[in-house]
């Protein structure tokens, strides 16, 4: 099964919405596949391993809650983050969503920047969980001794691992966003990674946090 990073599967029967959100997320650096029904979604994930699901619980005559439950008992997707994104905003709907196994519940209309931040935070948390589980059972992790970070680079790396975005890091460190972007670029170069998800994965795997 394919395991590349930054992959998202979106399940929604609103074709116009699928096209719009796919464009937005791809522009933000993600690889996105879409599906308008649950059967098609299962076909897609038979050879496409998403790092995160975005699911509308109202998909034609199918039950999105049941799809989430099935994902949670599937060995490949039991830990993959799931965001419910739907027009159903009643408290009972939210409770059912969380009971089914979703990690977060957003209602339409939604703020696109909020969704983007949520996606990145859930992906970071997912990677942290995977490597914590791995380190508890495997003792042969690789340590990288020839990578040296400046104090500022190390601070920014730690904040990225904690899920903070560039604007949030800039505020926390009292520096400009462009300055943060330069440091993030340096981190990519030093670790030979190309995305925040890869950077976090690499840092956790090689114990580069302090």
UniProtKB/TrEMBL annotation:
Domain HTH luxR-type positions: 142-207
Q: Which residues form the Response regulatory domain?
A: 7-123
Q: Which InterPro entries match?
A: Bact_response_regulator (IPR050595), CheY-like_superfamily (IPR011006), Sig_transdc_resp-reg_receiver (IPR001789), Tscrpt_reg_LuxR_C (IPR000792), WH-like_DNA-bd_sf (IPR036388)
**Superkingdom of the organism of origin:** Eukaryota
For the modification 4-aspartylphosphate, the affected residues are 56
Q: Which PROSITE patterns match?
A: HTH_LUXR_1 (PS00622), HTH_LUXR_2 (PS50043), RESPONSE_REGULATORY (PS50110)
Q: Protein name, please?
A: Hypothetical two component transcriptional regulator Ycf29
Q: Which organism is it from?
A: Glaucocystis incrassata
Q: Which gene encodes it?
A: ycf29
